[in-house]
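Hey forum,

I'm writing up a methods section and want to include a predicted complex as supplementary material. The small molecule is flavin-adenine dinucleotide. I've pasted the protein sequence and the SMILES. Can someone with a working setup run it? I'll credit the forum in the acknowledgements.
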Amino acid sequence: MAAAWRLSELGCRVTVLEKDTAVGGMGKTIAIGKYAVDYGPHTFHIRETDESRAIHDQVARFFGEDRLVLTRGTRVLLRGKEYVYPLEMLQVLTGVSPWLSARIVFDYALATVKSTLSPPTHEDSFEEWGVRNLGRTLYDLCFGIYSARVWGLPTSQISSKQAQRVAKLNLKNIVLRTLGIKADPATYFTKYMYPRKGISRLYEGMAHEVRKAGNSVWLESPVVRLEREGERIARVVCARNGREESIACAGVLSTLPLPQLVGMMTPALPASIAEHASKLRYRSLKLIYIALKRPRLTDYHWVYLLDGHYRVNRMSEQKNVSPDMVPPDRTILCIELSCWCDEPLWRASDEEIYRIALKDLMKMSYGVTEDEVEDYHVTDIATAYPVYELNFEDHLIPVLEGVHAIGNLQTLGRHGLFLNNSMDDNVLLGMKVADQIASGGFNSRDWLSQMLAFMNLRFQGK
Ligand SMILES: Cc1cc2nc3c(=O)[nH]c(=O)nc-3n(C[C@H](O)[C@H](O)[C@H](O)COP(=O)(O)OP(=O)(O)OC[C@H]3O[C@@H](n4cnc5c(N)ncnc54)[C@H](O)[C@@H]3O)c2cc1C
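Reply by user p_vandermeer:
Happy to help. Structure tokens for the complex are below, copy them as they are.
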């Protein structure tokens, strides 16, 4: 949407093809009875960098005059207690038992000595990375158990690239933050921007601008085929109103999951590329909304559940992001449960999924009982998170190269890059690609090298 909006502003002809009934993708607000909720509240990060400020200046109007600027309100539940997240070391060390606290310090010292004496020479697994940076005890306690549940794999089988999201949490940084020393503004953002009526406003605003410029946003129009002529896409075919419609194009920007995109190419790309694409896996998500007959449960936006006895990963409370989306005497929680698309849990009934979430909710220290539940609703996202298995790049790079060998096809977005990035990243890339195309046309090769550099930065936690 960001690319389409920016291209429209720059006077280009654009058609957006969206399979859903609304724009926004995973950053969408849905109505559940009297409640409005996102797929887990989707807040727009405000980083204290020039690049980030430039994006905010451009998109702020879509958030409305009365937009909310929030300070990160995240907690973790660990051994029954709440801790501030990102973690503050003193709080953890004084919160756990003296024995555990001593083990955390001892293991960290041991890990530091080990990695000084024998620095890593090759790409580590997430587990090796964590133990090296945090020591075994802190790693297991705060990341190991949780990550294995989120990703559905032992952390020895997950690439250390997954640490992009927690790289900022090595012990040195935790200590610095505890001492109040300001860290890298690109990664240590604490502020968010949010439209009062839900994140959809951002993308609906962009869609409105696209249409105002005379361009089209076609909803319920899934792309089914990309027709190649030599090394160019000549036409995109979508399903619309019960028949196929073909659109001739100068070029294509795709945010489709890469395996789907490869599968839609006609004639097909070389078999080796399809083979690599089939190895790129996504973790799926069930989102369980539970409405409670009480005005509020917590004061937080998100609560992460680190202990091994939970099956769900995270709980969020929409009202704490925007009170305008939930009635004053009620609250609604969104609980996230990850699974694989091909396991029985994915096909379980809504009632079964709800029961798993409710059981975990009642285990949390907030005293929720079943009698308080007013209603529940279950939805899902099949391709929520790209999974970084060990050496996933051996498959990802050939796919990205194979796709970008087509001169007028460029990929972006979470699924187009297979990158667990946030909305501000994707809006930035959308605007960037639009500026480049408007001034110089499609250049897939050049875009790919920019994207590989960008992904490398994110993999380093920058
Ligand atoms: C639970 C959860 C919470 C998150 N919270 C935050 C947050 O607080 N802040 C933040 O910045 N980021 C957050 N994110 C990340 C954020 O959702 C993504 O960065 C962003 O949505 C990615 O945008 P995208 O356009 O690349 O992909 P998507 O949002 O997945 O959009 C892809 C679009 O493609 C459409 N599509 C798929 N197949 C077809 C087809 N064949 N034809 C046409 N259209 C098709 C889909 O319907 C969808 O609209 C969160 C993600 C999850 C899963």
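Some notes you might quote in the supplement: The first helix runs from residue 2 to 9. The chain has a mean pLDDT of 92.
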